Amino acid sequence: MQLRTLTDVRKGWQLYALFALPLLYIIVFKYVPMFGNVIAFKQFTVTKGMFGSPWVGFAHFERFFNSYEFWRLLRNTLSISFYTLIASFPFPILLALGLNYVKHERFKKTVQMVTYAPYFISLVVVVGLLFQFLDPRTGIINSFLGWFGVDPINFMGQAGMFQSIYVWSHVWQNVGFACIIYLAALAGIDPSLHEAAVMDGASKVQRMRHIDLPGIMPIAVILLILNTGQIMETGFEKILLMQNALNLRASEVIDTYVYKIGLVSQALNFSYATAIGLFKAVIGFVLLIVVNQTAKKVGQESLW
Amino acid sequence: MKKSLFSLIATVLLLSTVLAACSGSKNDGGSASSSAPAGSASADGGLLTEPGTYPITKEKVTLKVMVRGNPLVEDFSTNEFTKWYEEKTNVHIEWEVVPEQSMQEKLNLVLASEDYPDVIFGMNVSPAQEMIYGSQGVFLPLNDLIESQGTQTKKLFAERPDIKEAITAPGGNIYSLPEVNECYHCSMSQKMWIYQPWLDKLGLKMPTTTEELYDVLKAFKTQDPNDNGKADEVALSISPKSWRSSIDGFLMNSFIYNPIYGTTKRLFVQDGKLDVSYTKPEWKEGLKYLNKLYSEGLITPESFTQDDNQLIQVGENPDVPLLGASTGGHQGVFTQLLGESGRWNEYKTVPVLKGPNGAQYAPTDATSLTTGSFLITNKAKNPEVALRWADGLYEYEHTLRSNYGRPDQEWRNATEGEIGINGQPAKWSELKSFGEVQNVNWAQTGPALRSNEFRLSAVSKGDDDLEVILYNETKNNYEPYKSGTYATVPPLFMTNEQATEIADLSKTVNDYVEEMLARFVTGDADVEKDWDTYLKTLDSMNLNRLIQIYQEAYDAQIK
Amino acid sequence: MHAKPIRESGGDRAFNVVNYIMLTIVLIVVLYPLVYVVSASFSSSYAVLSGKVWLWPVEPSLDGYKAVFKNKNILTGFQNTFFYTVAGTFINVVLSILAAYPLSRKDFRGRNKFMLLFVFTMMFNGGLIPTYFVVKDLHMIDTVWAMLIPTALSVWNVIIMRTYFQTTIPGELLEASQIDGCNDFRFLLKIVVPLSGPIIAVIALFYAVGHWNQYFNAMIYLKDPQLYPLQLILRDILVQNEVRIDMLGDVKSAAARQGLRELLKYSLIVISSVPLMLVYPFVQKFFVKGVMIGSIKG
């Protein structure tokens, strides 16, 4: 017994030693600056500093909650994010699974490379391309619809279509990059499992269901949990580029609102932006915990 | 074996500490302030020469200056103008260059860390920021310095009291010197352009009223002026994201005074009272007119959604021209300037149209200057020197050198008989084109004095010179319609509280107005039926409070 | 082992067909815009502006690329970014392994609390000014360290790595090695790391891409242009070609720049992403199945 305890302690020591450096980083670069969030409760002026600025309690939060657009912002932010989350979830997995069963190496590698590339195109260009494809006069989509006798649709002018356009272009740009994780996970599955299954006469579909999917499920669930935590973050730059007067009621999210307020006001109001950031963080964190506990209950992988 | 991983970690730790310590010495941390020689601190008469003379100081003085990075300037420290000016003034500059995109953040960071230099230069500090930090003593009030040392500035104030008024904060303090850059055609840039060849082809005259415009656009759409047997003509198409090209920018001014400049869009002053254009019955009439154009296919649906590239593609359509008319500040909004097709030169401006009730306004942009171009901080050991140094930049020759380069290389004086852009005798001429990366001038950074007289006295490069074209179009078709009764709201100083309230209100209100404008014009909302709801919504957004705050700020400043 | 291949069932063959069709569709849908971008980058600015380009380069020209390489700082930009990427990624990967491995061990006391601690930082952060102060107090401003240390760890990547360790490193492996007297350091170095080829490759790729595209930190922390990374220089080039309305003195240069700006957007993408595209095949090598063969037996 005593030998066992000693071994435990010694083992623990080594793990802690390994963990020390990353922990130090987190403390220095994440927790120390976190005190800065205190300015959300103060009227912060740069020159007075964090400690010299006066307290205002929840004034900034009240300003935000009472602002005319608050509910619309919250609604748009959440719906765009959920839509993105749900739409982007299955495709990288499907792509990875499909690629996994391609025997033709060249084809497989080509598809991987090609789908990986859009991630690197700058947002400005992606949105520009999007506008061109959707142009009522010259865009491919409308020409295509024209063959079926459908009148040109001004896609970007329809508030109802904004979220779909945003989400699916996002999927297009990210599916190749996101599927890389799943490819790695699939590569980590013991091939003897597959060999055994083939021996047993399992079809590819069955192998996918019983070997691959369970193999990548932990990663998929973890990613789902993490992405839920990010629910209040939206692709602010991209939305800004895609906004116009006609779709504004569906496209104005919290981040673009804060940005525009900052533009119009002559002095950057850090306190206000920080307060809103805190609000977003709290909501995201709560949701993350909810999803995490749910995952645990269902017997899946979870964060803690 | 276990040692290897351990030693790896230890080495990484050690390395990072050592290297961080070593690099610490490289960072000067801004502790060395202006290294004026001992005994020469602000002692009057000891260090400085007579105001208005050069050099400025008897012994060399160093100023630490933070400047906005200009992508067209290679290196401020080795720049030709820097060197020339240093020789003349005997003031050496230690530059700290801040990339333009991070300008605001950087400014806030240095103010927060108290790591700021003597002078803030070309960073476009806003009036609100001036007031906030000025009242805390970070920025020095310049009034006395100008009085005792600023010969050029005093001259400027005497000739242009409007400029002095614009930069004086409520309470009377002046915290910064501006960059004066008057662009004549920019001051009346809410223009409409029309394709002249089509007017000629269909035997039409340039429209002068809104009714005539309607007829012309209709003719464009139905009479196939590009002669290809297809009804592919686009009568009027605009891009909301381009310069001065909002749908209401030009056309609404035939109904009501409607400026779209700066942050005070659609706000005007009449007899000292501020009001907005978009709640008035005249606005409603204008909406009906626009809706009529739209429903007959004369305004394209994309006019509310397309970006600048899409519009240019329409304008530059290869083979046959497609675009009949567009709105914007210059032809580059919808065509390629000097493009192979030459289309850009075939579009002419439409004069301000007379509306059904006789309204006909060309709103003017009240901002002729960039505020906050030069500020002195409380860390400056020699504020008089700093002010003299900046003051000198307003001199005629210095302005030319700072913005263009060396005499007889990048610019020269005009010769007898040469005519300027405005048709008057010219004073100077540009030799090299502006816009390349170079190291001989500061490419419009910092205070300079380029008033209208200055800019328009550059030698005209002929009728195809864009500056000349824009000048003439503005003079002929817009200048005559300047309003005597209405004025645009000038940039206003505001307290932090006012600025905060305004920010929220104006963002929400303006977005709503633009959204409803689009919806009324496209017919998505009915002008008759939904007008009252529209007004009520604006009311619930506290529009009255918005106007009230602006009025207060205006009254405080224009007194 | 006998070499005779096992015949595929009808169901499997159908699956293959569907699979190939779907993947081909994906390929085309994704490929077309990419081809457009590359073609546009090699066209003339007029062709791009007037919308003539739709599949292949029109009026082929290298104007876009010339404009970029004309810039004096482009070479230092490349060098700097290369250095930041390699050094930064190395630091990132090492730190991530050091964080992820202990977190993956069920016997790591306090494991869940540490996870909470880490995850919390993903949502709550202090913002620009406090972080700037930390960097400043550590004397990293205007040094290469500002580009390497503040971004030394991404909790997201650590969590992914941890998940991988948990699912692919069998518990039996650990027990077996402990019986053999192997301690944690050794286990990590000699067994875990070699078996984690795929995830290390992926994480390294993610970090590398992050470094390669980095520009905001450079804007805030760096003053010396000699230290500027590629993206900052590229953005400068783009901004240099903006047409300033109030200074349209010379039509020719204004016009040239207006067209060039459009073209540049495409050329910049090609230039900045080509290196990353070239790196990918190397990473792909790690997604080879069979990395776990013999791990238990060995």
What does this structure look like?
The complex is a heterotrimer of chains A (304), B (559) and C (298). Chain A is an all-alpha fold and 304 residues long. Chain A has 2 domains: 1-29; 40-297, Orthogonal Bundle (MetI-like fold). The two termini of chain A are 29 Å apart. In chain A, helix 11 packs antiparallel against helix 15. Chain A has helices at residues 2-34, 49-52, 59-66, 70-88, 90-100, 105-116, 123-134, 140-147, 159-187, 191-199, 204-229, 236-242, 248-251, 254-264, 270-297. Chain A contains 15 helices and no strands. Chain B has 559 residues and is α/β, with parallel strands linked by helices. Chain B has 2 domains: 61-180 and 370-402, D-Maltodextrin-Binding Protein, domain 2 (3-Layer(aba) Sandwich), CATH 3.40.190.10; 192-363 and 489-557, 3-Layer(aba) Sandwich (D-Maltodextrin-Binding Protein, domain 2), CATH 3.40.190. Helices cover 39% and strands 12% of the residues of chain B. Chain B has 20 helices and 15 strands. Chain B has helices at 2-26, 80-89, 103-112, 127-135, 143-149, 151-159, 161-167, 184-187, 196-201, 210-222, 247-251, 281-295, 308-315, 383-391, 396-403, 452-456, 466-477, 496-522, 527-540, 543-557, and strands spanning 61-68, 91-98, 119-121, 177-181, 192-195, 234-236, 267-270, 273-276, 323-327, 347-350, 369-376, 411-413, 428-430, 449-450, 486-488. Chain B has a 6-stranded mixed β-sheet with strand order 2-1-3-11-4-14. In chain B, strands 6-9-5-10 form a 4-stranded mixed β-sheet. Chain B has a 3-stranded antiparallel β-sheet with strand order 8-7-15, covered by helices on one side. In chain B, helix 6 packs across helix 7 (161-167), helix 12 (281-295) crosses helix 18 and helix 18 crosses helix 20 (543-557). Chain B is globular. The model of chain B is unreliable at 1-44 (pLDDT under 50). With 298 residues, chain C is mostly helical. Chain C is built from 14 helices and no strands. Chain C has helices spanning 10-41, 45-49, 63-69, 74-104, 111-123, 128-137, 145-148, 155-168, 171-179, 184-195, 197-212, 216-221, 230-240, 251-284. Chain C is flat, with a radius of gyration of 25 Å. The two termini of chain C are 19 Å apart. Chains in contact: A-B, A-C, B-C. The interface between A and C is large, with 92 and 98 residues.
